Amino acid sequence: MKILWHDGYHNTKWIATETVGFHPDTLEPVKYTFKPTPTNRISKDKLRRTEVQDISTNSIFRGVKTIWDIEDCIERFWNRLNPLPTAWRGASIVKVLRVECLCKKCVKRMDNKGRGE
Ligand SMILES: [Zn+2]
């Protein structure tokens, strides 16, 4: 999939996203409590969640064309889980901190950075 990033178009279907959640009334950060999986990690302080996702098969990303579309899809999904007339709100307000492209070029660049090259 051709996605517009800050530095131009990338051809990718894999992305990594980092999100945080806030309690809707107190605005206190919400700690994640799920068990980490290979595609779904939480930071040591349990405040940040990093998830690897396939935007070509996950229907919440249908029609995305830019990194901002990806951010919007994630926030829309988590913050508007329930139909409006039910008045049920999500348990937390989710904010996307980062979206990383995991195309071959970007992964290679990240690998090189990790080795200090
Ligand atoms: Zn890329």
- Element string (H = helix, E = strand): EEEEEEHEH
Instruction: Give a quick account of the main beta sheet: strands, pairing sense, barrel closure.
Output: 5 strands, antiparallel
**Unique ligands:** zinc ion
Number of domains: 1
Total helical segments: 2
Q: Describe the oligomeric state of these chains in a short phrase.
A: single chain
Euclidean distance between termini CA atoms: 29 Å
Radius of gyration: 16 Å
The geometry reads as globular
* Model regions low in confidence, pLDDT < 50 over at least 5 residues: none
Helix coverage percent: 10-25%
- Percent of residues in beta strands: 25-35%
| Overall pLDDT confidence | 93
Structural class of the secondary elements? alpha+beta
> What is the tally of beta strands?
7
Task: Produce the secondary structure layout.
Layout: E1 2-5, E2 8-11, E3 14-22, E4 29-30, E5 40-42, E6 49-54, H1 67-79, E7 93-101, H2 104-114
